[in-house]
Amino acid sequence: MTRDVPVAPAPSPAGPSSTARSEALFARARAVTPGGVNSPVRAFRSVGGVPRFIASAHGAYLTDVDGARYIDYIGSWGPMILGHDHPAVREAVAHALSGGTSFGAPSAREVELAELVTRLTGTDKVRFTSSGTEATMSALRLARGFTGRKFIVKFRGNYHGHADGLLVEAGSGLMTNADGPLGAAAPSSAGVPPEYAALTLVTEYNDPAALDALMQERGAEIAAVIFEPVVGNAGVLVPTPDFVDALHRVKDAGALLIADEVMTGFRLSLSGATGLLGLEPDLSCWGKIIGGGLPVGAYGGRAEIMEFVSPQGPVYQAGTLSGNPLAMAAGLATLRTLEADPDIYARLDAYTARLAAGLQDAAHAAGVPISVNRIGSMLTAFHQGAPHGSVGSYAQAAGSDTAGFAAWFQGMLARGVYWAPSQFESIFVSAAHTDAELSTTLDAAHTAYTAAAGAAKGATS
Ligand SMILES: *Cc1c(COP(=O)(O)O)cnc(C)c1O
């Protein structure tokens, strides 16, 4: 059997550093798609410039349609922990493909992936969906069905996908009305009725006293508290031990604790962030890595709760493509590869630790204040002078110099490093990143910090 050899796109006629083809595609895309993209952060709105249209991805690299090659720190926003086009995943998907792409009837791979996920995470039962959004939305419906309660609690700056009741985070323009009930918040998207938003109470991450006070006042009405066990979606925020204790106390009020591990599951350890941090949620949500780059989500937990899900129980949830054979094959190959390589998380941690130290040195040398939060292979370098590791809340993260970040991001991109195009996102390191990528990245960072410092000085003088 011959395998198609991936063909690199021909260099753009305008030269290797041109973005002509991306610009042309972006113009066509804007004519037929809102903002020209199918998910907002891809549009580069907060950093400016033209989004790069990607032609192919292999290992630690993305290649765009103009022929430029980038060291990739997005990893499709988390799923590509093994790097792109990993042979085990490619072969598993190719094998599944030859047997048909969707059945609408159960198949063995769904059972195998469910067995693997439940065993590795210490969960009784799991249900697959096709996205993380579906997983969190369904877990909340289940929590409401199980408890018979209406309200849910989330934390400011935590992202759980785009279901109506979760697009509530009360950013700076939407802060809690001082006269309103504790935790009341406004929707953060048009199209979310205030009546839905009113069922979502919002409080601060890493503020155990605020969570305790909210549970004290409203605990008997609260079905669930949903949280990111390590936040990636406000930049990386790591929970304090006191906050972890307060999360466990919500169970005393009869509320379910829902860990949204869509980003952190199989990213921070084989048992996720909850395993790493000693968290014991009632329900967990997964996505991203468990699909190995294909569309998958999942939610799971104790049998007595999961048995409320249809067809066994009264809480309805379904999906035409749920448990899709290609997606299950990619997830199985990814999780099996992770499990077979016990050192993989230590290697990811070591690379990312050296990346953090190198960024700190480069920024310090250039006189650019940064504050690095890192855990495992997740990292955010906030452009602000707080001590490293000390940014713990959305409000603190929001104090970053986003213009300074944007200038630095563009400097990195120009030097072939594709960082997350927002100050308030994590980057993701993959197992395909090696010393060669690390030193190229740090050389680029040094130059980009120096240039960004020069530009900032020019702007203020
Ligand atoms: C990405 C993400 C989601 C949403 O998953 P989608 O597959 O994009 O719907 C939910 N929660 C967290 C923590 C995420 O990082």
From TrEMBL:
GO cellular component, one term: cytoplasm
Record protein name field: Glutamate-1-semialdehyde 2,1-aminomutase
Names of the cofactor(s): pyridoxal 5'-phosphate
Subunit and partners: Homodimer.
Region (Disordered) location: 1-21
Main location: cytoplasm
Record-level GO BP terms: protoporphyrinogen IX biosynthetic process
Subcellular location: Cytoplasm
PROSITE patterns the UniProt entry points to: AA_TRANSFER_CLASS_3
Xref: Gene3D superfamilies: Aspartate Aminotransferase, domain 1 (3.90.1150.10), Type I PLP-dependent aspartate aminotransferase-like (Major domain) (3.40.640.10)
Family per similarity comment: Belongs to the class-III pyridoxal-phosphate-dependent aminotransferase family. HemL subfamily.
Cited InterPro entries: 4pyrrol_synth_GluAld_NH2Trfase (IPR004639), Aminotrans_3 (IPR005814), Aminotrans_3_PPA_site (IPR049704), PyrdxlP-dep_Trfase (IPR015424), PyrdxlP-dep_Trfase_major (IPR015421), PyrdxlP-dep_Trfase_small (IPR015422)
